[in-house]
Amino acid sequence: MRQPLSKLLVLLSLAAPVPAARAHAGLAIGAAVGTAKVVGTGSDGLALGVSTQARVGYSIGLPLLTVTPEAVFGWTRWGVDDADASAKSLRLMAGGRASLGGVVSPGAFVHVGYMRNASDGILRGQALSTSQNGVSFEVGGDLAIELSLVRLGVYLAYNRGSLGDAEITAGGRTTTAPGKDDAASWVDAGVTASLSF
Questions:
Q1: How confident is the model at residue 7 (pLDDT cuts 50, 70, 90)?
Q2: Phi-psi region of 2 (alpha: psi -120 to 50; beta: other; left: phi over 0)
Q3: Distance separating alpha carbons of residues 6 and 121, to the nearest angstrom
Q4: Which pTM value belongs to this model?
Q5: Which of 33, 117, 134, 159 is the most exposed place for a label (fewest CB within 10 A)?
């Protein structure tokens, strides 16, 4: 009787639930590089742009879900068709992202914060530059492969900024023009990577 009883105890111990591993939490850094296309008003004449982003946050592992509050620095540049000019957008934002667990991991993110738009070029032989400050937001999603603490994937995002008065400098002279209802919208897509510690 002792032998069958010992075998039964072994089987019960193997079948007993294993305590879940402690959820990971810690510093997270990430980056993204993509192509940006201006949409809506003001999109005429602007070529495809290059979008870059760096982010740092704190990753919190939950059952089936990872949530990351984060700060984001973004820079995007567009060329102007048939002109010696360019437009640039610099943004400092805060927000967060959430992703489902698993080797294939879908996620979503939203950020809001400060935006500075600037453009420069040559008009009638003179240097011309403009700049505007405002508020911007972005919302998007990604699909990544998650390997241990590394996450690699692709993303798609919609971006919009509401801009204030414009400072215009031409021929060494600076003037201010009202920026009422000025806005910029674009879509960008590319590759993204993040690392958790």
A1: low
A2: alpha
A3: 84
A4: 0.81
A5: 33
